[in-house]
Design a protein that fits this description.
2 domains, 19% strand, Lambda Exonuclease, Chain A, 9 helices, alpha/beta
Length: 258
């Protein structure tokens, strides 16, 4: 069974050697690192799941902050210093404050933080962890993907089109819109999942599968992003690429999928 997800796809496109280490050689469990930006993303996603969930009826900032406090206690040990933790804590508060000052805080999602799959062919499975699905009064579905990084760069429309393919394929949902929601205050960036867009997405997925199956060398693609690779210690080209590189997180800092 061949599997793809937005995360697998982005890793292959970014660096084929990294893809090999993770999904072919399967070294991820052994070498996985607790990157602070991933810890933060996971904490914020868990906070939003509870805050926007059906059991929570208080949609103000005080309630959002109280939930963040509880979720933070579960992951704070992953930060490497007090200063680092304070930096991310302040970012989390700022993102929740922004959310609670706009209509997003009043959303009543039908689905939150769930993983779904669909089959493009009998041996080609497409997976995706979807942050949120809203359903309107006419049955139309609206997909929302949270972005908790400090920058909106790196967001790929193909990710949302994959979610639309999954929801329309396995669950037969009528997906009418999809958006990235940047919690840094930039707000929504819509992606329209029209028929032509979904057809292009399918073609991209099949082309990527062909590339992966034909790949034999899985060469590295050294860049400044190597600094945040779990497999940097195994990759001389990556280590050379990040000599002297500074920065606390990459543009694609987010909660990873399988």
């Amino acid at each position: 069974m061949f599997r793809l997800s937005p995360h697998r796809l982005s890793i292959f496109r970014q660096c084929r050697r990294r893809y090999w280490y993770r999904y072919v050689d399967r070294r991820h469990a052994e070498l996985h690192k607790q990157w602070p930006f991933l810890i933060f993303g996971q904490t914020m996603h868990a906070t939003l799941k509870q805050f926007l969930g059906p059991a929570n009826h208080e949609r103000g900032y005080a309630q959002a902050r109280a939930i963040l406090v509880d979720r933070w206690a579960e992951t704070r040990a992953g930060y490497t210093s007090r200063d680092e933790e304070v930096m991310y804590w302040r970012r989390g508060l700022a993102q929740l404050r922004w959310l609670c000052n706009c209509e997003e805080a009043q959303a009543r999602p039908s689905m939150l933080e769930a993983t779904y799959s669909t089959y493009l062919t009998s041996d080609f499975r497409l997976d995706g962890k979807i942050d949120r699905v809203d359903v309107d009064g006419t049955g139309g579905c609206h997909v929302v993907d949270y972005k908790t990084g400090k920058s909106s760069r790196g967001a790929d429309a193909l990710q949302l089109l994959i979610y639309a393919l999954i929801l329309s394929g396995s669950l037969h949902f009528d997906v009418r819109s999809a958006s990235f929601l940047f919690l840094n205050g930039e707000g929504r960036r819509p992606v329209q999942p029209g028929e032509a867009d979904l057809r292009w997405a399918r073609e991209e997925l099949f082309a990527t599968r062909a590339d992966i199956e034909a790949e034999r060398e899985f060469k590295s693609s050294p860049s400044f992003l190597c600094r945040w690779c779990d497999f940097l210690d195994l990759c001389p080209a990556g280590r050379e690429a990040v000599t002297g590189v500074a920065g606390d997180e990459p543009d694609w800092a987010e909660e990873p999928e399988s």
